[in-house]
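Summary of Year 1 activities. Much of the first year was spent building the evaluation harness for sequence design. The harness presents a backbone, in tokenized form, and records the residue chosen at every position. We chose the following record to illustrate the format because it has been used consistently in internal testing since the harness was completed.
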């Protein structure tokens, strides 16, 4: 593998650093070192190399008084960092050689690292890709988030049902971050607002301290590095009641402290519905307040006032979770710095931007006025005033949009009014944000909504995840595609070259073997490597329609049973993903998939032609192995419901063909790779709306489809749940009678598209050509492109490189 190498780092010097850290950081003798000890030594050695570019970048930003981006996000789904950092520093091969000379294997050591799962899904992983890209393109930036003690729950299956177990990534410390005990802010909650000399003052009832932990984020090539600053709740010492403790009441003595700590204890496990509302709102304010205080403090180091804040600060709100940033900034400007309310509002708006990630009504945050008053009384007053202003602006409208409707505070509307740019995450989604979600806002501010289609970092999702393919690309078109992904176009010239197509096929096989071995070791699951690998991996949600996929799998199984010698293409259907713990329907679908798998995988007649594999605990690490090994990418959401998708991009970049609807970024992926290289099916967004308004649409669709009737009958009869025949009665009943997600309406067309997949795969050369054209045309979906668009269209920040 060719890569950048820092001239000053040789294998010998890396080796001696490793040994030094093994001795002084891990406190071990090489003879008695465990894999864990080696990981500590390796990560500290790498981290040392990150410090120079980190300091250099930070110093330059200060010296040149550059505008900085602050990316506020409740989620950063980072995964492992060892190999990622090694690659970006150009030290991957040197580290491997140095370890090898000590009898230690790089991959074994790197895989000992726990996944930092500080996110639920798409929005959190996007934040991680953007952090890496901001560093790569030289955009001065800070990521701000929470240092959850427990990340997203670990999923296991018991009798095919999802179990949630606590995740413990910090159990043995985090070698990447530096504690900053001097960077501590008090965050207030509750209390009262009173007037003093004509000025309103908030006297919070309690304070919790936020302490910073910083990690360097190094861009590819090591030319620039930014900071990820995560806040941990550290209760004041006086919260621990020593008197009570001494009198023997240990639990009560620790209670206030435990309550304060809960602010950064767990990542909210649920990405679509809310519960535990007070804690969630408090967590959001905790992140936002600490970050905004930090931003204001940093600005005032170099400037006398906050008047010019917008020239130096761009704050991006990743969804509505940090939407309290608007009122918080206004509060600081008005209450603490004497700004006039209107001027404070205008200034805040110039500073803030808001990215919307979903149209699902249940995922749009709303807090009751009562809760808001309890937790953030001063902010509620500010929101009320903003609401008044907003209504005045809409004078003459019969149905003005409101920030507060009834007893609900609408965080989406709040985020919109306090931002100068609001963006959707794919062209289609942005159009729907404009027309469905915020039409009243859009009429008032027609320039405010912009589209920035999501992207993914090719460093992690190609170079790291798919070394064989990355090597083939480098061999074919040379280096440089890692930071200029449009260069993949040069592969098109090789798309008709049988030798190249064959080399591509070899990389796919290598990825399958790698994944297969990993599945065996980690989960004791078997993955045949001679089959079409057909994958749907993402959060479990009705709109994503894993149900459509498993129902089709049943049809496919029934057909194979009816005619086993019809020349079927051997297939492995892979499912992976977690359901929100309280999302019962999604959990039933998990159980259905596992039940069908139990029958299908144990049928000796079909085993060699069809397998279902559902490894538990989908996470970033699994994605890195699974995606390169896949041939077919299932992106089959009901049109109009998936904001963008980013998994769809990862698959296509790794040469999987997409079977998908015209939803989210699928639309743009298809435009880029070409309609001939994409298996399209399904109703469009407009047709979905129309179909939904027809009474009895699902019954009509089922009655028209013999295949669907056979499947539903098999499920209803308990073919896959003989121990409990009516287990899936509810799912079947929904299909007949409600079917909001139009599984029935799209079934036959999906079936047709699957037959096309089958046919295309039989022609190996044709398939490989299509796959190569997918790779060659995916350059647009690099997160470097997305970040550059944010820099010009939203943040007004220039690259420092
Ligand atoms: C996700 C969207 O569902 C997905 O389509 C999109 O690609 C991703 O954000 C990044 O923009 N939304 C969430 C969420 O993760 O929690 O709403």
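For this record, the design step produced the sequence shown next.
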């Amino acid at each position: 593998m060719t890569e950048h190498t820092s001239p000053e780092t040789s294998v010998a010097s890396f080796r001696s650093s490793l040994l030094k850290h093994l001795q002084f950081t891990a406190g071990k003798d090489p003879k008695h070192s465990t894999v864990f000890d080696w990981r500590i030594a390796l990560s500290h050695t790498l981290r040392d190399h990150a410090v120079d570019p980190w300091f250099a970048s930070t110093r330059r930003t200060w010296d040149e008084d550059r505008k900085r981006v602050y990316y506020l996000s409740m989620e950063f789904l980072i995964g492992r960092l060892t190999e990622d950092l090694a690659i970006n520093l150009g030290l991957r091969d040197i580290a491997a050689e140095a370890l090898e000379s000590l009898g230690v294997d790089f991959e074994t050591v790197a895989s000992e690292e726990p996944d930092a799962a500080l996110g639920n899904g798409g929005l959190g992983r996007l934040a991680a890709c953007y952090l890496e890209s901001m560093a790569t393109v030289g955009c001065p930036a800070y990521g701000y988030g929470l240092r959850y003690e427990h990340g997203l729950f670990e999923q296991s299956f018991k009798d095919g049902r999802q179990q949630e177990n606590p995740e413990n990534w910090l159990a043995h410390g985090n070698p990447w971050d530096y504690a900053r005990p001097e960077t501590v802010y008090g965050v207030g909650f509750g209390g009262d607002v009173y007037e003093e000399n004509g000025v309103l003052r908030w006297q919070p009832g309690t304070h919790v301290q936020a302490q910073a932990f910083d990690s360097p984020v190094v861009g590819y090539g090591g030319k620039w590095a930014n900071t990820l600053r995560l806040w941990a709740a550290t209760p004041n010492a006086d919260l621990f009641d020593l008197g009570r403790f001494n009198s023997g009441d240990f639990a009560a003595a620790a209670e206030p402290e435990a309550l304060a700590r809960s602010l950064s204890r767990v990542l909210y496990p649920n990405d679509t519905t809310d519960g535990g509302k007070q804690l969630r709102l408090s967590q959001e304010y905790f992140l936002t307040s600490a970050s905004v205080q930090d931003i204001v403090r940093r600005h005032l180091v170099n400037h006398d006032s906050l008047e010019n804040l917008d020239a130096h600060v761009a704050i991006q709100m990743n969804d509505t979770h940090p939407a309290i940033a608007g009122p918080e900034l206004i509060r600081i400007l008005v209450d603490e710095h004497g700004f006039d309310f209107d001027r404070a509002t205008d200034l805040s708006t110039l500073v803030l931007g808001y990215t919307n990630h979903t149209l699902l009504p249940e995922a749009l945050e709303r807090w009751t006025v009562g809760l808001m008053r309890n937790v953030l009384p001063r902010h509620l007053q500010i929101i009320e005033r903003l609401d008044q202003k907003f209504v005045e602006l809409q004078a003459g409208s019969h149905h003005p949009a409101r920030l507060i409707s009834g007893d609900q505070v609408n965080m989406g509307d709040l985020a919109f009014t306090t931002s100068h740019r609001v963006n959707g995450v794919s062209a289609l989604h942005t159009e729907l944000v404009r027309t469905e979600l915020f039409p009243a806002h859009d009429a008032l501010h027609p320039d405010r909504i912009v589209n920035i289609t999501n992207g993914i970092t090719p460093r992690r999702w190609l170079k790291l995840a798919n070394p064989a393919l990355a090597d083939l690309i480098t061999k074919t078109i040379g280096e440089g595609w890692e930071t200029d992904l449009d260069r993949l176009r040069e592969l098109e010239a090789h798309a008709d070259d049988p030798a190249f197509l064959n080399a591509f096929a070899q990389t796919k096989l290598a990825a399958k073997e790698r994944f297969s071995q990993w599945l065996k070791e980690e989960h004791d699951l078997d993955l045949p490597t001679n089959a079409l690998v057909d994958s749907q991996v993402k959060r479990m949600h009705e709109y994503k329609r894993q149900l459509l996929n498993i129902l089709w799998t049943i049809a496919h199984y029934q057909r194979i049973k009816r005619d086993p010698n019809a020349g079927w293409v051997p297939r492995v259907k892979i499912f992976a993903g977690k359901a929100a713990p309280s999302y019962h329907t999604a959990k039933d679908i998990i159980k259905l998939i596992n039940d069908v798998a139990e029958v299908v995988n144990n049928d000796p007649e079909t085993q060699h032609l069809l397998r279902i594999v559902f490894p538990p605990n989908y996470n970033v690490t699994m994605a890195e192995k699974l995606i390169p090994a896949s041939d077919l990418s299932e992106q089959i959401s009901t049109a109009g419901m998936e904001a963008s998708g980013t998994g769809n991009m990862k698959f296509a970049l790794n040469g999987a063909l997409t079977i998908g609807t015209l939803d989210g970024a699928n639309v743009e992926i298809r435009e880029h790779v070409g309609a001939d290289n994409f298996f399209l099916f399904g109703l469009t967004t407009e047709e979905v709306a129309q179909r939904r308004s027809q009474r009895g649409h699902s019954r009509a669709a089922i009655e028209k489809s013999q295949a669907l009737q056979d499947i539903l009958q098999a499920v209803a009869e308990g073919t896959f749940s003989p121990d409990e025949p009516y287990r899936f009665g509810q799912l079947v009943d929904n299909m007949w009678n409600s079917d909001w997600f139009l599984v029935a309406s799209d079934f036959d067309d999906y079936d047709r598209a699957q037959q096309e997949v089958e046919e295309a795969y039989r022609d190996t050369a044709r398939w490989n050509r299509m796959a190569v054209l997918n790779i060659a045309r995916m350059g647009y979906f690099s997160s470097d492109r997305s970040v550059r668009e944010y820099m010009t269209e939203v943040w007004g920040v220039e690259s420092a490189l």
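The two ends are 26 Å apart (CA to CA). Quantitative recovery figures across the full test set are reported in Table 2.
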